[in-house]
Design the sequence.
């Protein structure tokens, strides 16, 4: 962070050296960046504004009624529907649980892996695999593993003499399969970022504490963890955004079921639009979704910036 | 474990010879096996004969490996469309994003202007954006212009995913580019376009390759937008096709895993090739649904 700001200051200073060159530089910058900005305005900003407009109208494929302006009616309709509130609460619950478990598991695994003396590179490569492959395929694999009868998970449980539940038939078990699948997909990212952060901590610090007689727990909580704060914040921001948009694994594993118990914002939005053909309602959900993610992401961004300014 | 950790780096650590080293090694192998089990399961299921797919208790390895699942996938023929679509859409979205994103990243990094910081921030904020939010507007707009079920429609819809990623990765790289080289080129009378093409680009090939790889992967692995914008086997991409092998109406696990193997192998090769850049790539914004 500090490096970045330092460099920015450097560029600004060198640009101020001569005002003519600076002006030319600014014009060049505008010309270089304009096409990309225009492309994103057309593909993100315009669709989004159009969605806002759509959310204020009555519009559905099935309905034969003419399209008309209905104000905030769609928002009132969505915000009072219990299935939207269920999806919203379940999303928030999922985001909280998955972030906490990912961080704890990621920290634990990173602490163990940093001690690996052999095959460090090979291990890092193996860990990176879930990050590169499509969530759809991973979710398919987990659907097979958790399935009734021919699934490997229940096969293993039966071998140990344990009960073999119907994983997708019961709300909390279905949620567990979603959580496990997403942990498999995301914990490797947390581990790799934390390992990179740990590599940046000078050995002498932890060494000195140990020589002073600090216990392993003490060293971890008083030295390692505080020094990992920047890495943890990066993980939090990125994983928060990912967790909010979780869709693929839910679509593949449970389809939101049983009885909507694994419905989240993305899957609810998808169903509103493409199963119920409720386009105006879907538009209102889209706007609410973007607002919620925006507010939470913005809050974290400013919290991060304040911390960065303090450091 | 604490004892091992507290040994200074230079001293030889407990290795193969101690029982502790062997235990750690065995534990590690078991952990890696369990960790990779979902993938291993896909690869072994793909070569299982249909009689062993649903064996109870389940078997990890087939007693008689077969290519029947692959044969079935190819006889159906849709897989070639899907693979082609995924490849075409990924390559085109990446090329367009590089064409627009390379100069933009260079401009943001080296030619700041009044609102460039705001614009760059706006580009990067799209990292937080849920792609499913674009599903509805793209669906309705592309339907209007007849671009549903077409690779062109998907390419357009993937620009907001791939382009910000490319800009973010390259902006960070260009910021580190040595100023002396640019200054020297400017003194030689080169204009910005030629500096970009003759000086910057040749020296940035690895960074551009990594940005291209991650841009491509974010399109290759994308699901919800492809699911929304395509509905025929001729137009679907690989993730959509793979998901449709196993639904509430059919459970073609054999074909699903065979298709998955074909879909995963290029990615696994890319993972090995790009292993050193994976963290930086993912931190700059490859999306995960």
Sequence:
């Amino acid at each position: 962070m500090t490096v970045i700001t330092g460099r920015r200051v450097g560029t600004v200073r060198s640009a101020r050296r001569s005002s003519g060159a600076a002006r030319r530089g600014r014009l060049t910058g505008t010309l270089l960046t304009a096409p990309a900005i225009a492309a994103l305005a057309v593909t993100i900003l315009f669709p989004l504004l159009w969605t806002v407009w759509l959310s204020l109208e009555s519009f559905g494929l099935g309905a034969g009624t003419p399209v008309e302006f209905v104000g905030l009616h769609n928002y009132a309709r969505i915000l009072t529907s219990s299935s939207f509130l269920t999806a919203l609460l379940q999303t928030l619950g999922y985001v909280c649980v998955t972030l906490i478990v990912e961080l704890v598991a990621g920290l634990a695994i990173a602490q163990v892996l940093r001690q690996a003396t052999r095959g460090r590179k090979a291990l890092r490569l193996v860990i990176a695999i879930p990050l590169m492959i499509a969530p759809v395929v991973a979710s398919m694999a987990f659907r097979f593993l958790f399935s009734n009868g021919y699934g490997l998970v229940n096969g293993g449980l039966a071998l140990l003499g344990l009960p073999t539940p119907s994983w997708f038939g019961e709300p909390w078990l279905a949620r567990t399969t979603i959580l496990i699948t997403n942990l498999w997909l995301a914990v490797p990212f947390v581990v790799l970022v934390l390992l990179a952060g740990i590599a940046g901590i000078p050995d002498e610090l932890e060494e000195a504490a140990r020589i002073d007689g600090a216990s392993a727990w003490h060293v971890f909580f008083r030295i390692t963890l505080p020094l990992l704060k920047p890495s943890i914040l990066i993980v939090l921001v990125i994983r928060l955004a990912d967790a909010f948009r979780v869709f693929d694994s839910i679509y593949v594993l449970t389809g939101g079921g049983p009885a909507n118990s694994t419905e989240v914002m993305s899957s609810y939005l998808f169903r509103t639009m493409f199963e119920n053909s409720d386009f105006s309602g879907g538009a209102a959900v889209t706007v609410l979704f973007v607002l919620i993610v925006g507010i939470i992401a913005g809050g974290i961004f400013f919290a991060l910036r304040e911390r960065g300014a303090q450091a | 474990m604490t004892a091992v950790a507290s040994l200074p780096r230079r001293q030889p650590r407990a290795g193969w010879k101690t029982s502790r080293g062997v235990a750690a090694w065995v534990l590690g192998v078991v952990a890696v096996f369990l960790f990779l089990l979902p993938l291993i399961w896909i690869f072994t299921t793909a070569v299982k004969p249909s009689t062993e797919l649903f064996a109870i208790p389940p078997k990890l390895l087939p007693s008689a490996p077969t290519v029947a699942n692959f044969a079935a996938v190819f006889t159906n023929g849709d897989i070639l469309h899907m693979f082609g679509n995924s490849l075409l859409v990924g390559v085109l979205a990446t090329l367009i994003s590089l064409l627009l994103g390379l100069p933009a990243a260079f401009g943001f990094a080296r030619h700041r202007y009044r609102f460039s910081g705001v614009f760059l921030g706006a580009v990067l904020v799209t990292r937080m954006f849920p792609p499913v939010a674009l599903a509805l507007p793209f669906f309705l707009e592309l339907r209007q212009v007849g671009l549903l079920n077409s690779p062109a429609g998907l390419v357009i819809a993937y620009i907001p995913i791939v382009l910000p990623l490319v800009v973010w990765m390259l902006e960070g790289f260009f910021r580190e580019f040595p100023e002396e080289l640019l200054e020297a080129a400017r003194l030689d009378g080169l204009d910005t376009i030629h500096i970009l093409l003759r000086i910057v680009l040749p020296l940035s090939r690895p960074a551009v390759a990594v940005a291209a790889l991650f841009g491509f992967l974010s399109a290759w692995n994308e699901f919800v937008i492809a699911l929304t914008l395509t509905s025929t086997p001729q137009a679907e991409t690989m993730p959509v096709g793979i998901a449709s092998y196993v639904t509430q109406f059919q459970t073609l696990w054999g074909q699903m895993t065979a298709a998955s193997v074909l879909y995963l192998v290029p990615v696994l090769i890319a993972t090995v090739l790009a292993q050193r850049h994976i963290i930086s790539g993912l931190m700059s914004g490859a999306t995960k649904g």
In short: Chain A has 14 helices and two strands. The longest strand of chain A covers residues 57-58. Chain A has one domain: 81-310.
